[in-house]
Design brief:
This protein is mainly α and 167 residues long. It is built from 4 helices and no strands. It has a single domain, classed as Methane Monooxygenase Hydroxylase, Chain G, domain 1 (Up-down Bundle). 14% of the residues are buried.
């Protein structure tokens, strides 16, 4: 029967793998988000935002689980993964080393995707704001007023004219 330390090490490895899976899912969703922005697809963007929120919540829960396992194994819930060898005093099991390496690689991928999206979304927002300003600037023209006995103002250059053929 495995001892408590072996079980905790196995739990830690599984927790690290779960975090890596979530970070890889996060990276994939961020790439999909960029595609939705490029396609100007608000429905898809909303769905992806919901999925991103769920992945981030799952990631937070997974990290809480990791802190509990680390507290049991090392006595420090906030121990850094790079400190595990020193804290455990024994060579790390290969399963933990592999899971840690996979997690670090997934974190790097998610970080890169986040950095790209930050730039893309900032530019998309700026473009949208600029477009709205142009639309509103064109809409701010003199509003015609129709009062009995008034004569309508001549249309602005490039504007449209309303013709009443009935009366």
């Amino acid at each position: 029967m495995p001892d408590t330390r072996e079980m905790n090490c196995a739990t830690l490895a599984a927790t690290l793998d779960r975090e890596a899976d979530l970070l890889l899912r996060l990276a994939a969703l961020l790439a999909e988000q960029r595609s939705a922005v490029a396609a100007v697809n608000p429905g898809l963007l909303q769905g992806l935002t919901d999925e991103l929120s769920q992945v981030l919540a799952d990631l937070d829960r997974s990290r809480s689980g990791r802190r509990m396992v680390l507290a049991t194994l090392t006595g420090r819930s906030e121990a850094r993964l790079s400190e595990l060898e020193a804290l455990l005093a024994d060579p790390l099991p290969a399963r933990i080393r592999e899971a840690r390496a996979r997690l670090l690689q997934a974190a790097q991928e998610a970080g890169q995707q986040t950095a790209i999206n930050r730039v893309v979304l900032k530019r998309a927002t700026e473009h949208g704001q600029s477009r709205l300003q142009r639309i509103f600037a064109q809409a701010v023209r003199e509003v015609p007023q129709y009062r009995p006995g008034s004569t309508p103002a001549p249309p602005a250059a490039g504007g449209s004219v309303m013709v009443n053929r009935i009366g």
